[in-house]
Amino acid sequence: MKAAELLSRLWEVEFMRFAVIGTAAFVVDTTVLYVALGAGLGLYSGRVVSYLVAATFTWYGNRRITFATHAYGAPAIAAEWLRFLLTNLVGGAVNYATYAVLVSQFEFVRSYPVLGVAVGSIAGLGVNFTLSKLLVFRAQ
Description:
Layout: H1 3-38, H2 43-66, H3 77-87, H4 89-105, H5 107-111, H6 113-136
């Protein structure tokens, strides 16, 4: 197998793992959003809380599974987590903006915010994968 083919295959495997962890994070995100709504937070502030919890879940899952061979040792964990959150603010902004537009424009999505979370998550997936691979979990 040529080096370019091997690299392409590695990216595909990592992307699939990233997407699986992202799917689990979607469940975390949605669950926390509904708990936050039940606790009295609004659709927007509740989403900020749920996003931060889901982003932390995603960082940990990708650190342990998707990019395990690239993850830094214990002393760098806090810095890596912060770098992940800051780097993924771009994908997070795409995610949140998509959610906010859908919630503000469609009564059906306002009634079922899980739909906005789902579309927002898909919108930010490619951005977050690319930035995570290149800037957070780059090979040592």
